[in-house]
Design a protein that fits this description.
alpha+beta, six-stranded antiparallel β-sheet, 13 helices, 18 strands, 49% helix, elongated
Length: 562
């Protein structure tokens, strides 16, 4: 009886486990190990993605802080350069140089100003600020007391009432005898642009905060926070008392906010200032996208279980592996310096389009940053071409201008003249009156040559020591000789005492050379010719103007040079 009952149950079982069910069971048996392995892999991927997301935010915060530091450093460099010029050049000359050298490649500098000892603005790149009294501004007071670079907190500019931060550098740090301070207004909008890589990120809130806790800059999607205290911003009020203090260079901590959300706060102080970059990360919102991706992956995995294994492998190859390889190849090309590498979104599945768009945006931003760095380097190169004592171009700057004018004259088949000017008996002048007076003498000579260059459309420079040069494009030998006499008489006309000179005043010898550049000549040939003429002028007793091949003495006579 029991045997019959068992046979009946086996028949029913066979009916239930038909061929389709058996194939389905076989498919499940084959896929189950892969399914379990896939589950384990997804969990590992989730942990790795969370770690990568955290590392990415830390990297972005560091990068943004470094970019803010570069902005502050560039402002400090410009202020120190202007202070050097003001330290040894009068207010008028300093203002002219400052207006002419306001760097277009540093758009975060809104304006440059020089404040006198009475606290009033003596000159500025924007005339509406001239005459304003800033003597009560804390940053101005601190700069004078510390004799160092100072970066202010959030303030409202006078008289426009515009939000701004100010940078200050005292001229007394360079020349204690000059009681003046060079100021720069820093554009808060530009500082916010630098933080654009921290914007539009779910669960991430970033702000640049001054020492008083006021928000200076924020990404475009958080622009409403700017100018408000940290504890009054809803997204940041819960971390106001948790963020590491401004006296710490950097730091991070995790805590549970009042609303129960787990947060991580990273803070980095901007070098040279009391400002700090604060980033708050809501871990739940940050991981929300990752959890969604994992849920979708589980659903896809369950869907694969309903189809044949081969179809799943083909779909995985087409929808996952190939796009990842494409993105990895683009990232590799970009990492090798191919800045134009971009992911082609049309060839990618829809799930990868946001990633491709983010990659392309990142590539464009990095390319833009590369161009900005090149522009900044060009600006620093220009600044390195200026002689700090006289305000004229130094030898490097002169050589660059000579090469340019030589090429230009060669192309237009025009004449180019060069004056080499050397102060007579300058070593004796230094020995007699001292080096400070020697520097003052060179400064006056530089101003005189600058005036002559402006009048004659020339380019003046300090070639080295007491030797100067004046480059004269589109000028023939006769005109160059007249200009040389103008320089000589202008220097003697300064009537600076020189008791050890035969002329009892500071004089200069001038060598003149002119040519029409061609392919057989080099710029160095023109310099050598002018030097030879200068040597002849020295040989003629100094205080003379000598052309290459002819000499014009101080009495206006003309004779062949030996």
């Amino acid at each position: 009886m029991s045997r019959v009952s068992f046979n009946r149950k086996r028949v029913k079982l066979k009916k239930v486990l038909g061929i389709r069910a058996r194939l389905a069971l076989l498919a499940l048996i084959l896929v189950t190990p892969l399914m379990l392995e896939r589950v384990r892999s997804l969990e590992d991927t989730r942990a790795k993605q969370l770690a990568l997301a955290s590392a990415e935010f830390v990297s972005l915060a560091k990068r943004s802080a470094d970019m803010q530091r570069e902005v502050i450093s560039s402002v400090e460099t410009v202020l120190k350069s202007a202070a050097y010029i003001r330290g040894f050049v009068d207010v008028g000359g300093s203002c002219d140089v400052m207006r002419a050298s306001l760097p277009a490649s540093l758009p975060w500098i809104r304006s440059l100003m020089i404040v006198g000892g009475d606290g009033r603005i003596q000159c500025a790149t924007n005339d509406q600020y001239v005459g304003l009294d800033l003597s009560d501004r804390p940053y101005l007071i601190k700069a004078r007391e510390s004799r160092d670079f100072v970066f202010s907190d959030y303030i409202l500019a006078r008289p426009t009432n515009t939000p701004i931060v100010m940078a200050a550098y005292p001229v007394s740090a360079i020349n204690p005898d000059v009681d003046a301070v060079v100021l720069a207004g820093v554009n808060l909008d530009w500082m916010s642009k630098i933080m654009s890589n921290l914007g539009n990120r779910p669960g991430v809130t970033a702000a640049l905060v001054d020492s008083a806790g006021t928000v200076l800059a924020a990404p475009a999607d958080r622009a409403g926070m700017i100018g408000r205290p940290l504890d009054s911003v809803p997204l940041l009020s819960s971390i106001a008392d948790k963020a590491p203090g401004s006296n710490q260079p950097q730091g991070s901590l995790s805590f549970t906010a009042v609303d129960g959300s787990k947060r991580m706060v990273t803070s980095a102080r901007i070098a040279g200032t009391q400002s700090r970059l604060v980033i708050s990360i809501d871990e739940a919102k940050v991981s929300e996208a990752i959890n969604g991706e994992i849920r979708n992956a589980y659903l896809q995995l369950a869907f694969v279980c309903l189809f044949v294994l081969l179809g799943a492998l083909v779909a995985a190859q087409k929808l996952i592996i190939q796009p990842i390889e494409t993105m990895a190849m683009m990232a590799k090309r970009f990492g090798q310096g191919e800045w134009s590498a971009r992911a082609k979104r049309k060839s990618l599945p829809a799930e990868f389009i946001p990633l491709a768009r983010a990659f392309n945006a990142m590539a464009a931003q990095l390319g833009k940053r590369e161009r900005e760095l090149l522009a900044t380097n060009d600006r620093l190169t220009v600044m390195a071409s200026i002689d700090k004592l006289t305000g004229l171009a130094n030898r490097r700057g002169f050589q660059s201008r000579l090469d340019f004018e030589w090429m230009k004259a060669q192309q237009s088949d025009s004449e180019l003249s060069l004056l080499m000017i050397d102060v007579d008996h300058f070593k004796l002048f230094n020995d007699t009156y001292g080096h400070p007076e020697g520097d003052a003498c060179l400064t006056r000579l530089g101003a005189t040559l600058a005036a002559v260059a402006a009048e004659t459309m020339g380019f003046a420079g300090r070639y080295g020591g007491e030797e100067f040069c004046l480059l004269l494009p589109n000028t023939d030998a006769s005109r160059a000789l007249d200009i040389g006499e103008m320089v000589r008489s202008a220097i003697q006309g300064l009537a600076m005492p020189h008791s050890t000179s035969n002329f009892l005043t500071v004089t200069a010898s001038v060598g003149v050379a002119s040519t029409r550049p061609n392919e057989k000549q080099q710029p160095g040939d023109l310099i050598e010719a002018a030097d030879a003429a200068l040597y002849a002028a020295k040989h003629r007793g100094r205080n003379a103007v000598v052309e290459h091949g002819f000499v014009r003495l101080t009495d206006g006579g003309m004779e062949l040079a030996s």
